[in-house]
Amino acid sequence: MKIQKILNILTLLTGAIAVTVTSLWIGQQAYSWLPPQAAAESLLIDDLISFLVTLGSFIFLGVTSTLMYSVIFHRAIKDDFTDGPPIEGNITLEVVWTAIPILLVLWIAGYSYQVYEQMGIQGPSEIVHLHNPLGMESAYAEPKDSPANALAEPVEKIDVLAKQWAWVFHYPERDITSTELHLPSDRRIRLALKSQDVLHGFYIPAFRLKQDIIPNHAIDFEFTPIRPGKYRLTDSQYSGTYFATMQANVVVESPEDYQQWLAQAATQKPSIAKNQAASEYAQTSNQSVQTGWVTVPPAAPPLVNSPG
Amino acid sequence: MTNVPIEGILLPNEKHNHESPTSWKEYFSFSTDHKVIGIQYLVTSFFFFLIGGIFAMVMRGELMTPESDLVDRTVYNGMFTMHGTVMLFLWTFPSLVGFANYLVPLMIGARDMAFPRLNAVAFWMVPVVGIIMMGSFFVPGGPAQAGWWSYPPVSLQNPTGNLINGQVLWLLAVAISGVSSIMGAVNFVTTIVKMRAPGMGFFKMPLFVWAVFSAQIIQLFGLPALTAGAVMLLLDLTAGTAFFDPAKGGNPVMFEHYFWFYSHPAVYVIILPIFGIFSEIFPVYSRKPLFGYKVVAVSSILIAVVSGIVWVHHMYVSGTPSWMRLIFMLTTMFVSVPTGIKVFAWVATIWGGKLRLNTPMLFALGGLIMFVFAGITGIMLSSVPVDVHVNNTYFVVGHFHYVLYGTVTMGLYAAIYHWFPKMTGRMYSESWGKIHFWLAFIGTNLNFLPMHPLGLQGMLRRVASYAPEYQFWNIIASLGGFLLGMSTLPFIFNMVISWMQGEKAPANPWRAIGLEWMVSSPPPVENFEETPIIISEPYGYGKSEPLTANLSE
């Protein structure tokens, strides 16, 4: 009987160690499931995701291995139709497993809050139609020795206009428009997001950042690109027929290259940008199943200095 | 607690002058027997489950390749809109109401629901909703294409210019479905509060009844918000009002609030009865009492309460200020406390039992494992910074399909197999049931697991075309989806053949403890010849006490 008890404890201990080690390993793998880390915010978010994956793996493996153990070792013998032990509960155990999730929740929420504060991504700076004091959010939290805000100055301001189905970027200082979003790396970017028609969403997976764009609302959005390269911006809030085509290139480059691009674009005469929605709409589609259901016609392709 | 006659209630013995259903016709005609209505709900909703599944497979077919090349973009958009709508409003809701209808009166020792005619009317609204939904394919412009959320302004754009269009029909159908659900909720809450057999205090009710009770309370406070939002949107669309139309000064974000105030709790309306089903099934096939019965019962009510303050987590990246994001992050995460309690209780129930892995048990175990997975991704989603990245991506799609297919549909299958002998008086084929389980379990994971890496990589939901780097996981997901579609075939085959010529079922084939197992299979029209008097708690496995004082066990 005593040996049995020691054996049980040993089994449990081995199981717990195996589950812990596996969870830690899976948590490290989480980084490889994500796109390149192209913004300061992505470093923070990826750490948080890795932490949650570790914790989640621990819980998942813990529960499923307990279940699997029961399924394998606690099966009824073929002709045994008797009942199991009539254990109805255990107050101590029940209190403990209520307390554990509560503590975990507070831990996860605390860490998430910390990351969110450090990101300082802001949100709606004003709510135009509802003069609701609760909606008034002071947009620019104090940058405090956080990685995302360490590079805060100078801020680069860019206007973003979303419409069905095109992105137009306007650089107010030089009065340049473009269908490609050029960003200087290691500079704090402040976007003014606007929509001409329906809800859109500004989303760059490599930055891990997203913000809905709401008609009649001015929404400021801040972040810091850190890794030169070419990425994709997509519309993340369903915007109608050609939703999937509403994408744009994002070019992160050194501040010098960025200035050069701005100067070069300033010399260009506005021309009509290429637009997938408009060209698909114009030509008869080549799908196998067609119904000819009418759709909202795409907005005219934008006139821009830099059609990308 | 005794049977208190309520004014206006049609007492069962005044109306039932017919025998228990003997022909197919019974199931196609107006009946006030809660058991007939229960089966009507189940069969009707399964029919729509197949239709919703076909829509899903068209979408998975389109997503086999990065280009939009199988169907028109308009068709694709209509497909995902109708898939979501049909699966929620015509499959999960009505099928669970079907089980509740069938089981609640039996489980509490009542002869019928409190309002049998209202019950029947509520059911017959479901086919009406279905006909309107399917009819929308035949109006000019096709069905609604704004997603099952129907966010304005997209849902307000009406390129056909017709007054009758897919979106109008969609809103009409959703409103009727809401009215039907409110009727059902009133009926269930009244039945459970007023019609329990003598001796059945709240803490002697089976957990399925607790779960239905909690879920239907959510319906009562949540549905008015959705219905109001739908009616306001309908007015914007047809009568030129400007509640949500930004072009006229309306606020589309308000619609998001109306919509999610109900539509997030709706998830708990669906999943609470599944938790109830798990709580019924695990003790039977483990031969042990449910561990921590009272805590599990109270946790259902707690979920209903917390469900009222979580809706903004769908809108973190909408026009939502920071303070609101953070409050709703905390409340959302707290849902994991009562659900965690349930999961631990089930694991402890199974632990050290004498397990029999019959088909219902397999489905319940599979569903539980996938629910734990869904719960973990749910916690990730509730964290604001993580949600900022994966919101509206396939990560979310993967998460909620683990909830709605992995847990809810698997739980429904578990329930169908478990109560099939009771409902039909016949046994199902165990080997076909197991084939069905393995196809469904593998299909579900192949279909929905790849959605998580896709979402982390940034692939958006609701897209008909995508970047080529996402193709690998999409092919796996599509193959899983087709397998899932196929998995319903052995199920249908099994159900039809077994119902027609299965072995005759005894009253209690699983040796289960519960009032419904004390009456014959199928139960007589008025359920109980004499009203049972309850003397002990449910789930007395391993204890030799009787459940009732008068009915023989």
From TrEMBL, chain A:
It is found in: Cell membrane; Membrane. Residues 153-264 form the Cytochrome oxidase subunit II copper A binding domain. Residues 18-123 form the Cytochrome oxidase subunit II transmembrane region profile domain. GO terms for cellular component: plasma membrane. It is a multi-pass membrane protein. Its cofactor is Cu cation. The keyword Transmembrane helix applies. Its EC number is 7.1.1.9. GO terms for molecular function: copper ion binding; cytochrome-c oxidase activity; oxidoreductase activity. Keywords: Copper, Electron transport, Membrane, Metal-binding, Oxidoreductase, Respiratory chain, Translocase, Transmembrane, Transmembrane helix, Transport. InterPro entries: CcO_II, CcO_II-like_C, Cupredoxin, Cyt_c_oxidase_su2_TM_dom, Cyt_c_oxidase_su2_TM_sf. Belongs to the cytochrome c oxidase subunit 2 family. Subunits I and II form the functional core of the enzyme complex. Electrons originating in cytochrome c are transferred via heme a and Cu(A) to the binuclear center formed by heme a3 and Cu(B). This is Cytochrome c oxidase subunit 2. It comes from Nostoc punctiforme (strain ATCC 29133 / PCC 73102). The lineage of its organism: Bacteria, Bacillati, Cyanobacteriota, Cyanophyceae, Nostocales.
Automatic annotation (TrEMBL), chain B:
It catalyses: 4 Fe(II)-[cytochrome c] + O2 + 8 H(+)(in) = 4 Fe(III)-[cytochrome c] + 2 H2O + 4 H(+)(out). One of its GO terms (molecular function) is metal ion binding. Pathway: Energy metabolism; oxidative phosphorylation. It is an enzyme of class 7 (translocase). InterPro entries: Cyt_c_oxase-like_su1_dom, Cyt_c_oxase-like_su1_sf, Cyt_C_Oxase_1, Cyt_c_Oxase_su1_BS, Cyt_c_oxidase_su1_bac. One of its GO terms (biological process) is electron transport coupled proton transport. It is found in: Cell membrane; Membrane. Its main location: membrane. One of its GO terms (cellular component) is plasma membrane. The keyword Ribonucleoprotein does not apply. Keywords: Cell membrane, Copper, Electron transport, Heme, Iron, Membrane, Metal-binding, Oxidoreductase, Respiratory chain, Translocase, Transmembrane, Transmembrane helix, Transport. The chain crosses the membrane at residues 39-59, 79-108, 120-139, 168-195, 207-235, 259-278, 290-314, 326-349, 361-382, 402-420, 432-452, 472-497. Its EC number is 7.1.1.9. It is a multi-pass membrane protein. The keyword Iron applies. It comes from the Bacteria. Belongs to the heme-copper respiratory oxidase family. NCBIfam families: CtaD_CoxA (TIGR02891). Cytochrome c oxidase is the component of the respiratory chain that catalyzes the reduction of oxygen to water. Subunits 1-3 form the functional core of the enzyme complex. CO I is the catalytic subunit of the enzyme. Electrons originating in cytochrome c are transferred via the copper A center of subunit 2 and heme A of subunit 1 to the bimetallic center formed by heme A3 and copper B. This is Cytochrome c oxidase subunit 1.
